[in-house]
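Field reference: "sequence" (input) and "structure" (output). Example, Gfo/Idh/MocA family oxidoreductase:
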Amino acid sequence: MSAAAAGRGLVLGVVGTGRIGAMHARNAVQTPGVERVLLADALPGQAERVAASVGAEAAASVAELLGQVDGLLVAAATAAHPELVRAGVDAGLPVLCEKPVAPDVPSSLPVLEHVAAAGGVVQMGHQRRFDAGYLEARRALAAGELGWLHSVRSTTCDASPPPVAFLATSGGLFRDVSVHDLDVLRWLTGEEVVEVWARGSNLGDPEIGAVGDVDTALAVCTMSSGLLAVVTASRYNGAGHDVRTELQGSKGTLVVGLDDRAAVRSAEPGVTFPAGPTHPTFAERFADAYRAEVAAFCELARGERENPCTPADAVAASRVADAAQESLRTGAPVRVPAT
């Protein structure tokens, strides 16, 4: 029986209680309409520690958790996503899964088929779709306030790189970082990326190059209408965590992320903007978006809204990221396979 039918609040389960999982758990506990939050983790004692810190409960196993919840949040390691999504769908639960669906596109496709065959509901965790700035940009663009777009520029720069051991298995800068820019590029414009040309460099820690990654990269994306978009990323941005998207149209220009915490400063005399401290990481930059994402999942679980980000959406962004990684490897433009 659903929570709504039983006349009670939702019971949510979170599997994987690392940094993002702990954030989801805390947000779930604080979301109106959520009655209980249960946690499970493959690392012994981890779920209990996080549960104690956020006001949740620890389940003895994933199987025990699945039998007690109305919705499942998957925040475990990427390799575990397919199994956990299938388990949630097979238990008749709506699922919120952190991106990506699976480590690569080929292994994602059977998961999409399984979800479709089971009639499952899976929301993917592309949190920028819930950020106030991106939502306003999408509204303004759809309303025609910018006219027709001629250029898009989107950047994501971390203040410092994660451990090299993580980068060795992350899939590369475009899959690890820029996939968020590629998702909102499709979401904002309503167009598909049809071709990507990418370049990258390593001017920081040589160990990043030794494990097959780059620390800075750009991709020129050609959209289905011919619109050009430039996506840039870096793991070394001493000014702070920098996420901005600029939409330039025939009537006007709109920038997401240009606020008092933007990681930029002006070279013009007398200009003091921005005045505030920069965001140190993505967690602070998108704190409100992550909360809104969990709230939206609760609405989805109660049947109150459409799915805001489907597994097919996530795979489409991953296809573009794969093409960018291939272009980075070969130096040649790469066509993006149709979805």
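The radius of gyration is 20 Å.
The longest strand covers residues 149-157.
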